[in-house]
Amino acid sequence: MRIKCTVSYDGTAYSGFQVQPEKRTVQSEIEAALAKLHKGGRIKITGSGRTDAGVHAKGQVIHFDTPLNLPEEKWPVALNSLLPGDIAVLKAEKTDSGFHARYDARGKEYRYYILRSRQRDPFLRSHAYQYSFPLDIDRMREGAEYLLGTHDFTSFCAAKTEVEDKVRTLTAVEFLEEGSLLVIRFAGNGFLYNMVRILTGTLLETGRGDREPKELREILAKKDRTAAGKTAPGHGLYLWEVFY
Amino acid sequence: MRIKCTVSYDGTAYSGFQVQPEKRTVQSEIEAALAKLHKGGRIKITGSGRTDAGVHAKGQVIHFDTPLNLPEEKWPVALNSLLPGDIAVLKAEKTDSGFHARYDARGKEYRYYILRSRQRDPFLRSHAYQYSFPLDIDRMREGAEYLLGTHDFTSFCAAKTEVEDKVRTLTAVEFLEEGSLLVIRFAGNGFLYNMVRILTGTLLETGRGDREPKELREILAKKDRTAAGKTAPGHGLYLWEVFY
Known about the structure:
Oligomer: homodimer
CATH topology of the largest domain in chain A: Alpha-Beta Plaits
Shape of chain A: globular
Largest sheet of chain A: 10 strands, mixed
GO molecular function, one term (chains A, B): RNA binding
CATH class of the largest domain in chain A: Alpha Beta
EC number (chains A, B): 5.4.99.12
Number of strands of chain A: 10
Keywords (chains A, B): Isomerase, tRNA processing
Active site (chains A, B): 52 (nucleophile)
Pfam family, one (chains A, B): PseudoU_synth_1
């Protein structure tokens, strides 16, 4: 039986989602919990995509196959009792055996949290990127307009990537202000490696006044990673939702 | 010169505020940073009061004496560069040598964070008390009315305490609902050991239906710790502000 799970995690203590030798990862914690539940039987999980070290998830989606026939509502209870407190299975659904967490994803939403303050906040140190330079959000909004739609996002993709087709569609880039937090909401049909973090870094440079908003269009046209801005740090990023 | 500092900390990694042998405490971290700043000279700090293991602070106040004559605005910068990321000095003020962070405090505000959910939240696991039973906030409000004003709070004080006078004045007990969070705001002229956590535990039992609101008055009258409810856990509690 194939199970689809929605999972939230605080990425602070993890070297990212995907299993890596000698590293603590979200995938290895979930697979360890599944192994206990299956009395040692190894169950491999597949995520909708990787998240990097320190990156958080409010709604990562995974699937796995299991011989156990638990009712849907029992899966979160059983797994959460075996998982560390910084990972939570929010929901489990029985799904048909053709479902695939990565291949079937029609789109994703990410949110990037920026703490606009010169004063550090002990409660957000691993959960928002502290940015002490003043930001002109209108400039960021204007720059973001050029990013919407279907483009080759090569300039906004980490150079070390194996993906060939770098055309993606961004359907939303929104700026939400919550007190001293600026949250940038990105939605699209798919995201390249480090894409949200490079988009954020470049938009921050625009908001700070180091780039003109119309440069965003030029950066896209160059199809060159070095044309874009810095990669914003992982700890401000949240995989918010995966759409199927 | 005497310096008054406002300090915020995430208490998760600490065995409370006050120095204890072999334990990591907020006071020992701040004193270690001050020692570095004073080239090894020991500077003792005095807080407005202790906080227990896991308890957080948004506005703890401390004072210390120093031979250094730094401008006020340099103190937070200098100390924060030496402190771990889960402690932040928010503000420093030069004060007269008679100022005392504990004795001069006229009042305090605490807030207690309750996550009303059956689903755990990886981001709040150390920052709010997850409470899965349904709560009737109106019952809690009604019970809290009996607590307002000047009373002997012996019933709401941990038995192991050295304080003799247990009369305190509660000026506010407010219930703030923020999504699935219930925040109880307590303000008063002073708080006994574990008082906010015992008040919270007893109010939760009232909201859950295990106690009648009017029992709060009877519990006060008994002057007996065993008459009140359970001590709510430390990780939901924030020392919010100290008034002088």
